[in-house]
Amino acid sequence: MSALIHALVLDAQGGAEQLTEKSAIKQWKPSDGVLWLHLDYCQDDIEQYLAAVPLSEFAHDALIADETRPRIVSDDSGHLLFLRGVNLNPADSPDDMVSIRVFVSEQLIVSTRHRRLLSVNALAESLRKGKGPSTTSALVCQLCENLTSRMQGVIDELEDKLDQFEEDVDSQRAHDHNALSQVRRQTIGLKRYIRPQKEALRALVSQQPSWLADSDMPRINETINHLLRYLEELDLNIERAQIIQQEVASQVSDQLNKRMYVMSVVAALFLPLGFLTGLLGVNIGGIPGTESAAAFPLFVLALVILTAAVALYFRMKKWL
Predict the structure, then answer these.
(1) How many C-beta neighbours within 10 Å does residue 159 have?
(2) How far is CA 244 from the centre of its chain?
(3) For a tag site, which of 88, 164, 268, 301 has the least CB within 10 Å?
(4) In sequence order, what are the beta bridge partners of 6?
(5) Distance of alpha carbon 317 from alpha carbon 320, whole angstroms
(6) Which sign, positive or negative, has the C-alpha torsion 306, 308, 309, 313?
(7) DSSP assignment, residue 108?
(8) Running along the chain, 320 residues long, what does each successive block of 10 average in pLDDT?
(9) 303 burial class (0-12, 13-18, 19+ CB within 10 angstroms)?
(10) C-alpha distance across the termini of the chain, in Å
């Protein structure tokens, strides 16, 4: 399988020309237009495509690194952006965010990933339809916006789940404790990458490289604002999950205390009966009533009266 996902040369009108051959990529010149090369860094022929474009050794190694975290790094020939997008692939968890590494210079953009990102696919499709960004700055801004906008649906879904958990707790309905723990883990996982991504975009604004147009600065700032709002919502979700867990623990404790209380009252009611029956059940001489036929009914009646007296005493003490 080839490492090349797509190679697009922007026409500065919102469209792009698709390059399919390595030779065409090698023959590309900055004067031809902005080249966006998108690759899968886990494929064997990744080196061939990276060698076809002018990259420093540092940029080359960063684009194929196994582990990254959201940040921005300056390079002699451009900037490296390490970003994350929510994982919307089937059977995957959204909090297992997909990493994308992006090298950006005036006329060259090289991005690498392993798992599929819908945000990148949507951006490439808009270029093929002639409705995409026309400059390097606009393409990077659109990529950041796409990655950020898809986070909202995942966060809303987590909030809906917490709403349902709160309703279950208020109505004391049974619910899946593991599901609540999973929601909390997903929330923490999203927060882990969104916070440094916000800081990376802030650093991009503060550095304002030459390829980032002044007209696109408000778009980056708006993306940062969205990320900040998502972080606030995630912090709130974490607190809500903690409160729900505390409420569940409190309800379980109350139910246990009530059951233990009932068992204690029952044990206290029958304690005198157990003592008397045990005392009269010893096999030694001198036990009263052994020669009387009325002794057993009278003893049972006495036990009933004693039990009623103990219950009445508990009632007067408001223990029942």
Answers:
(1) 17
(2) 17
(3) 301
(4) 38
(5) 8
(6) positive
(7) E
(8) 90 90 88 93 90 90 88 89 86 79 94 90 92 94 94 90 85 73 88 92 92 94 96 93 85 84 82 80 73 78 83 77
(9) middle
(10) 75
